[in-house]
Amino acid sequence: MIWLGIETSNKPLSVSIVRDGQVLAEIVQNTNMTHSVTCMPAIEEVFRKANLTPVDIDAIAVSEGPGSYTGLRIGVTIAKTLAWTLRKPLAGVSSLKVLASNAELYKGIICALFDARRKNVYAAAYRGMNLETVIPEHHGSLEELLQQLKEYNDQILFVGMDVQKFKEDIQTVLGEQAKFAPSSLNLPRASKLIELAEKEPLPSLETIHSFVPKYYRLAEAEAKWLEQHQKEQS
Amino acid sequence: MENLILAIETSCDETAASVVRNGNEILSNVVASQIESQKRFGGVVPEIASRHHVEQITIVIEEALAKANIVPSDLDAVAVTEGPGLVGALLIGINAAKAFAFAHGLPIIGVHHIAGHIYATALVEEMQFPLLALVVSGGHTELVYMKEHGSFEVIGETRDDAAGEAYDKVARVLNLPYPGGPHIDRMAHEAKRGVEFPRAWLEDSYDFSFSGLKSAVINYKHNLEQRGEKIVPEEIAKGFQDSVVEVLTTKTVRAAKDFGVKQVIVAGGVSANRGLRESLRKALEQEGIPFTAPPLNLCTDNAAMIAACAAYMYEAGVRSDLSMNGLPGKELKSWIGENDNLRQS
Ligand SMILES: [Zn+2]
């Protein structure tokens, strides 16, 4: 079974080809170049390194969100176009879970988060080798998340590129309860994404057309429109 | 010329794909519009447009291939709008095009959206050079001179609002639903008389300006309201349209004569406007200059026009690569006579 994995949910980029659980080729990078420029050349490169062609793969896994809207759309558009035209199943995995899986050997709670601006975050918390969900993927205030985590009688490991920005806030609320992952674990890896996708049954080909990113938020204009509409109706 | 091209266009709020043979035979031309969704906001919201494109993109490409009854291995190249346009929207078409091209080992060609609009003409008849194109849309008002295929010289353009933008703004002043252009066109035809609005001539230039006209419309309506007088929207619509059409027609005819062109074409979303088409047809007929206005479905955004343009680029050896990015402000550049630019930036 040969997988192609694509992860572009935030600033870092990762693509990987994995055959029967073995990583054949992987790219992990964290530069300021847009995924629109870097992602397809990176995919071409892992195929070349793995000495495979697009038709050789059996399935595609992609980070489905949350994350940067544009970043997610680039990865998902590439993944669903490849999956549709090559007639291969497409599996979506939570981008927060992909990140948390870097630290799956940790004994306590693993909290993955991305900055969503104005002291808001996309976040989730997991526990154990199987990454059982403690707090599901959501968009909300950092403060609320920290208060929620404080209730657990456990050490909490924070992972993610953006954790550094919130280190002070985290320590203020959680003190010694908070631990911070070494920076090498803060970059998502497409091979981990594939590992997670492999644990779930393969989705049918019929689901490819309707595959979209999980934004966890309405577009601003849509939220305003709904608010206005509900006011008019009440 | 012999080639078969799949083109994708997502520069604004239409998700479109098309298969065209030899640059002039449309095998399929699929357009999924977002108008119903964008209507709620009175205009195109970029984030909403991008979300819709992701939902539609593979469905639209599949339909284009199925209707054309071809498989990927029949194709010679994949073309896609590289810009100008909404960057988030462009990126969906571009990345889908790149992924599709990579999956099937096909070359990829990035096309300028305005060049595409101009090449809609090639789907109707052979283009006659030298040629003058009036490109009028929501984002553009330009006079483009073409010496031959692949050669573009912008000889005049708007200094402020695009014609389509002015239409949308005036439509909003008149409380017309989005998109406002067709409503103004219809109302202008229903009116018996039009309000007298100014014309911005910008002497000794082929440039345009529509912001003064827009302000004049707003002031006129405001003054009537203040005096408690009755507003006849049809008369405002006609006055506005008459001003826009007269300036566009006069400048186009003058440029056509100055440059001695063999054909004038009108392209872009606003070229669907009946008032503008009739005026240009009449004025150019008087001068004995052949005039072409592509059918309405090829004037609004579509992918067949992108494929038609790409067919000529393909013949000229123009190729992009997998690092192609969306260029929201991409300039209209010639693809011939500039070998350094042949491999596009
Ligand atoms: Zn257009």
From TrEMBL, chain A:
Domain Gcp-like stretches: 25-225
Family matches, as Pfam families: TsaD
InterPro entries attached to this UniProt entry: ATPase_NBD (IPR043129), Gcp-like_dom (IPR000905), T6A_TsaB (IPR022496)
Highest taxon of the lineage: Bacteria
GO annotation, biological process: tRNA threonylcarbamoyladenosine modification
GO cellular component: cytosol
A Gene Ontology molecular function term of the record: transferase activity
Entry protein name: tRNA (Adenosine(37)-N6)-threonylcarbamoyltransferase complex dimerization subunit type 1 TsaB
Organism: Ureibacillus terrenus
Gene that encodes the chain: tsaB
UniProtKB/TrEMBL annotation, chain B:
Gene Ontology terms describing biological process: tRNA threonylcarbamoyladenosine modification
Cofactor: Fe(2+)
Main location: cytoplasm
Reactions mediated catalytically: L-threonylcarbamoyladenylate + adenosine(37) in tRNA = N(6)-L-threonylcarbamoyladenosine(37) in tRNA + AMP + H(+)
Acyltransferase in keyword set: yes
Location of the Gcp-like domain: 25-307
CC annotations in GO: cytoplasm
Keywords, ordered alphabetically: Acyltransferase, Cytoplasm, Iron, Metal-binding, Transferase, tRNA processing
UniProt-listed InterPro entries: ATPase_NBD, Gcp-like_dom, KAE1/TsaD, Peptidase_M22_CS, TsaD
Gene Ontology MF terms in the entry: iron ion binding; tRNA N(6)-L-threonylcarbamoyladenine synthase activity
Broadest EC class assigned to this enzyme: transferase
Co-factor: note: Binds 1 Fe(2+) ion per subunit.
Protein location: Cytoplasm
Keyword Cytoplasm: yes
Job description of the protein: Required for the formation of a threonylcarbamoyl group on adenosine at position 37 (t(6)A37) in tRNAs that read codons beginning with adenine. Is involved in the transfer of the threonylcarbamoyl moiety of threonylcarbamoyl-AMP (TC-AMP) to the N6 group of A37, together with TsaE and TsaB. TsaD likely plays a direct catalytic role in this reaction.
Family: Belongs to the KAE1 / TsaD family.
Protein name per UniProt: tRNA N6-adenosine threonylcarbamoyltransferase
Gene of this entry: tsaD
